[in-house]
Design a protein that fits this description.
Blueprint: H1 3-11, E1 14-17, H2 21-33, E2 37-41, H3 49-55, E3 60-63
Parallel strand pairs: 1-2, 2-3
């Protein structure tokens, strides 16, 4: 991988909506890949919060209302 592509990969961050079972599954996958992510959940105490903090202690976690600076979720059709 050339240096420019590596820099772009590191600058890009994944955005994970929800800290339930699926969000934690994504967190595990991203952790194995060494990817950086922002985790967002509209609940103040989502069920997977403690587990996420254990899996990725340095992860950026946003709880409550989605900041306007973060994009709204878009879901791919099943």
């Amino acid at each position: 991988m050339n240096a420019q592509r590596e820099t772009q990969r590191r600058a890009a961050r994944d955005l994970v909506y929800g800290l339930g079972n699926t969000g934690l599954s994504v967190a595990r996958l991203l952790g194995r890949e060494g990817s950086d992510a922002i985790y967002l959940d509209t609940r103040r105490q989502p069920p997977g919060l403690d587990e996420l903090r254990r899996l990725q202690p340095d992860a950026e976690i946003v709880l409550g209302e989605r900041p306007a600076s973060l994009p709204e979720p878009r879901f791919a059709p099943a």
